[in-house]
Structure formats: structure tokens, C-alpha cells
Amino acid sequence: MTAAPEVLAELEGLRARVPHLTGAMVASTDGLVIAHLVTGMEPDGVAALTAAALGVGARLTDAVGHGGFRELLVRGEHGYVATYAAGPSSVLTLLATADANVGRLNLEARRAGARIAPLTGGPADRRERAAAPPPPSRSPLPSRPGHRPGSTNPGNENGVSS
Amino acid sequence: MTNTETALKDAMGSIEGALGVALVDYGSGMALGTLGGSQSLDLNVAAAGNTDVVRAKLRTMEMLNIQDAIEDILITLGGQYHLIRLLTGRGGNGLFLYLVLDSRRANLAMARHQLKRIEAELEV
């Protein structure tokens, strides 16, 4: 993918700014690695698992009527795995140690997600940049067919063609 | 004994020159509650950033082998005072109150005294 160097630069910026970050990855919502800074594990496996968790997360927010997927934070005994929406077709996954500053992680990752979105082909995520409360959003993943009729046409809802 | 919401309201209402206040968990860097703030003062950003300040001070004390606790931290800017007061006891461990004051309107001694009272009454 041609955008990979720019996405990788964004990940390197994150690693420099966020203490306790042990890995970072941008993957497509269907589980393919776009760029990564992950050592000591197989990035393809992490991306595939992220996609699976993402599917469940998106279904869950949809089921309770909380709109599209935004973030997923998992805390293990020895650290965090956090996944953030980066446009409609990609996600940013960060790995951090247990003593990470999650507030800081969230802030940096949300901004980075908004910057990565246009690089991976999706429209820039205006919701993260707007100062006003976000409007009801559609899922970056296709919703279950028939469940939310308004959101079954990804890419065109805002009149933005990618 | 007061809850978080009441304590934050108390701080904004009774402390002269208060621009914003937050109760922050420095284990996670996330705010348990915020009040005030503005477009130019995002209290969630402040919570995350000041978590690093508190952690750095605690680490420094550990390196210096100082067996003591932080009561409060004062940061003086050109036009603002930032007061950080760590909570003690009653489940408040790992939390701090963060108060932003307009230095032209605030009385620092009074603000510090009032924040100490609010902290003492706060039960999380």
C-alpha cells in the first residue's frame, strides 16, 4: 500500500510521544496489516485478532444503540491493548505496559487516528476534530444487514466520495 | 463527607478565580470528574498531562530515597496558578484534585486552604 510510509511515520511519532508504548499497528478492519511497529510477536496474528475483537465490539455498540465503533480497550495483567477507529476502513492498535497513562494514550491515539484516516483511503474523520459533541455516527464496519437500514451504504452517507 | 460532583462544584463556586477543576486518577491518567474549563483549557488533556507531573515527582522522591508523601504541587504560570492536591485515605489513594486559577483574581493562600478543606471532606 502506497500510504504505508506516511502511516509508519505517524506510528513512529506516537512511539516518540507516548511513554510506555510497546507496539503500534495500523490494520484494515478486515485484519490486514498496513503498517506496524511491533517486535517480539507476529503482527499478522495481532491484526487478525484485532479484526475479530473489532467485529464483536462494533456489534455490541450497535446492539445497545450507541452507534458506530470508536474504541476498544483491553487490560491484561501485564498491559493494555487499545484499538481506535481510524476512518471507515482501518484501525489503529496500540500496545502499552500496565503502568501506561491511559488518558494520554487515548488523547494521542484519537488524534493519530484522525490523521491516519485520510492516509488509508477513508474520508478524514471530522467527528474527532469537531469541538461540538459528535453526531450519531455510522459504524466503520458494515452493520448487520437489515438492523440499521441507514448505515448499509458505507462511504456515501456524508456525501463524501473517497 | 461530600461526593465528587459536590466537591467539584464547591471548588468552582467557593474558590475565587477558579477556571476549572478536575478529579484525576493518576493510575490511568483519566479524569473521574471535571468542572469548568473552556475551549482553550481541555481538562481531560490537563488530567493526562498532570498525571505525568505527579508520577515524575513520585519517581524523583523514590530515587532520592525520601520516605514521604506529596501534599500538594503548585505550578505558577504567567497568568494562572495550577494547584495539584493529592487525596489521602478513604479510598482516595491514587487520585488528585487539579485546580486552575486565574492569578489576577485568585488569592493563592486562600485557594490552597479551601482546596485542602474540600479534599478533606471528599469521599470517593
From TrEMBL, chain A:
SUPFAM superfamilies: Roadblock/LC7 domain. This is Roadblock/LAMTOR2 domain-containing protein. Residues 8-96 form the Roadblock/LAMTOR2 domain. Residues 152-162 have a biased composition (Polar residues). Residues 116-162 are annotated as: Disordered. Residues 132-143 have a biased composition (Pro residues). Pfam families: Robl_LC7 (PF03259). Gene3D superfamilies: Dynein light chain 2a, cytoplasmic.
Automatic annotation (TrEMBL), chain B:
This is Roadblock/LC7 domain-containing protein. It comes from Streptomyces klenkii.
